[in-house]
Amino acid sequence: MDDEKDKQSDTNYQIDIEKIVNGEDTRTSLMIRNIPKGHTSEMLISEINDTQPGTLDFFYLRVKNNDRNKNVGYAFINFVAPSKIVSFYQAFNGKNWDKVESEKVVSLAYARVQGMQALIMEYEMKNPDAMTMDMQFRPTVFLSESQYQEESVQYGKLNIRTHQPE
After folding, report:
1. Range list of β-strands (E), the chain
2. Which residue windows are transmembrane per the record (predicted)?
3. In this predicted model, what pLDDT tens digit does every residue of 27-50 receive, in sequence order?
4. Of 3, 85, 105, 107, which is least surrounded by CB within 10 A?
5. 59-101 residue pLDDT tens
């Protein structure tokens, strides 16, 4: 019975491009798996921005507490709209990593927690250590220039950046 429940929960996190295109799936938060250990936040953000500039509003590559130069192999991202997932999925899922030598293959799935605000709360409440690390290792929020001027104070403990326009 547990195996059946696990299979069902796995399918809840599978990305179905057709459902996104048809407006049947409006989730925006993804988990990126199989990230090479040496990959940094900067490298991953750069790789995403090369093909998807301005499409994220949240990014968090978790790192090991005892070795901040090594990530734990997964990251969470949130797109500004569900439609932005389609081209990202097509560009990344099932592909090898471009900027590092690794045999790992990118695997994408929906995150359990959905939406920028919910992701922020998840880390503030359930993983407060993430908020005390050096700024470069904290969850990152991407705001437009106008949002940054109006809202940056409310994201005080996060790494805040203005995002590249699309």
Report:
1. 29-33, 56-64, 67-79, 107-110, 140-143, 159-162
2. none
3. 999 999 999 988 888 889 888 988
4. 3
5. 999 887 655 668 899 999 999 999 999 999 999 999 998 777 7
